[in-house]
Amino acid sequence: MNFLLKILVTCSFSIYCIVFQRSSIKGMETKNATELTEFILTGLTHQPEWQIPLFLLFLMIYLITIVGNLGLIALICNDPHLHIPMYLFLGNLAFVDTWLSSTVTPKMLLNFFAMSKMISLSECKIQFFSFAICVTTECFLLATMAFDRYVAICKPLLYPVIMTNRLCILLLVLSFLGGLFHAIIHNAFLLRLTFCNSIIVHHFYCDIIPLFKISCTDPSINFLMVFIFAGSIQAFTISIVLVSYTLVLFTILKKKSLQGIRKAFSTCGAHLLSVSLYYGPLLFMYVLPGSAQENDQNMMDSLFYTVIIPFLNPIIYSLRNKKVIDSLTKMLKRNVSITY
Questions:
Q1: φ, ψ for residue 36 (rounded to 5)?
Q2: Cα separation, 85 vs 91, whole angstroms
Q3: C-alpha span between 61 and 101 (Å, rounded)
Q4: 185 dihedral zone (left: phi>0; alpha: psi -120 to 50; beta)
């Protein structure tokens, strides 16, 4: 026990030294330089003729995203027939998508017309912290939803026994704690960086990769941490998704009922589409950051999982889910009858 305690203390002290201490050599190099505490976000475009069309486009996308996701949450909360694990996870996914979109999009919209596109270092860290929680939590939620579909289709008789309320709450708590822990790690390692060369961040929000590129401090350790943690989380969650749906596919193919096959594909198809659209840009952005991508390409990848995916998810899950459509139809009919 004492041996394990010594190892823990030693590891903690080592991490402290790496994150919170600046090397004396680096301090000598930058002592005469002014450390920057404000940055300029370049945004999506420098061309004035594109600013109004892009502003209107992303404003519409943001409003639909908020209405769609909050509407889906309200629908799930108000309909007792949707109080099952699948829709519990879907409701939390809609909440995370709303949070993610609200972390990034409002600042992007303001910068289309702002005279000053400055953002302070503290605001930058807060925005990235919120962003990291959402993106990581969504990875875990997608894996949890895949596991839920595996149990529902491959072990239908054991589904109520396995997917208990206690397990569902535990999976949700672990998903959010995983997102929080991951965000804390990267924000802690950001403390070792100094910025004294450039104030230009080639992005429409504060992401860590563009910040690494303008750091005066060697960001090699930060890149390594991104590769280790982001890579591990994505490999772990993607593995769960792939294994779950491989087993689901085998189970579906064994079924003799055409109606059962259609129902299973309808239920899982939306989730597979959402997973495919979400993980692709993330892999290129964080697991393969050294792939010599241009700034514009990085922004397009980021735009996809911060703005487009939260916009598409409620549409994908609503249009391809009969229970959601039936529940929405009943609610609309009920509201119309009350009105008249």
A1: -80, 140
A2: 10
A3: 10
A4: alpha
Q: How far apart (Å, rounded) are the C-alpha atoms in residues 318 and 65?
A: 13
The pTM (predicted TM-score) of the whole model is 0.84
Q: Which residue in 111, 106, 104, 161 sits closest to 134, CA to CA?
A: 104
| Rg over CA atoms, the chain | 23
Residue-wise pLDDT for 109-149, tens only, equals 988 887 778 888 899 999 999 999 999 999 999 999 999 98
* CA–CA dist 328, 314 (Å, integer): 13
CA 201 to chain CA centroid, Å, is: 21
Q: How far apart are CA 86 and CA 5, in angstroms?
A: 41
Interacting residues of 128 by C-beta distance below 8 A, sequence separation 6+: 183, 186, 187, 190, 206, 207, 208, 211
Separation CA 332–CA 78 (nearest Å):
12
Rounded CA separation 219/196 (Å) = 14
Q: What's the DSSP call for residue 297?
A: H
Report pLDDT digits (tens) over 305-340.
899 999 988 888 777 677 788 777 777 777 666 555
Strand ranges across the sheet with 38-41: 118-120, 38-41, 200-201
Can you tell me the distance from the alpha carbon of 128 to that of 272, in angstroms, rounded to the nearest whole number? Answer: 27
Answer whether 110's CB lies under 8 Å from 209's CB: no
Q: Rounded distance, CA 252 to CA 263, Å? A: 10
